Amino acid sequence: MVTSRAMLLRIVAQQFRQPSGLLGRVWGRMMNWGNAESIRESIAELNVGRSHRSLEVGFGGGLGLDLLLAAAAEGLVVGAELSDVMLAQAERRFAGDIARGRLRLVHTAIEFLPFVDGSFDRLLTVNTVYFWGDLSRGLGECHRVLAPRGRLVLALRDPESLGRIPFTRHGFTLHEPAALAHEVERAGFGPVRIVAHGSGRSTRHCVVADRE
Question: In angstroms, how far is CA 152 from the centroid of its own chain?
Answer without folding.
Answer: 11
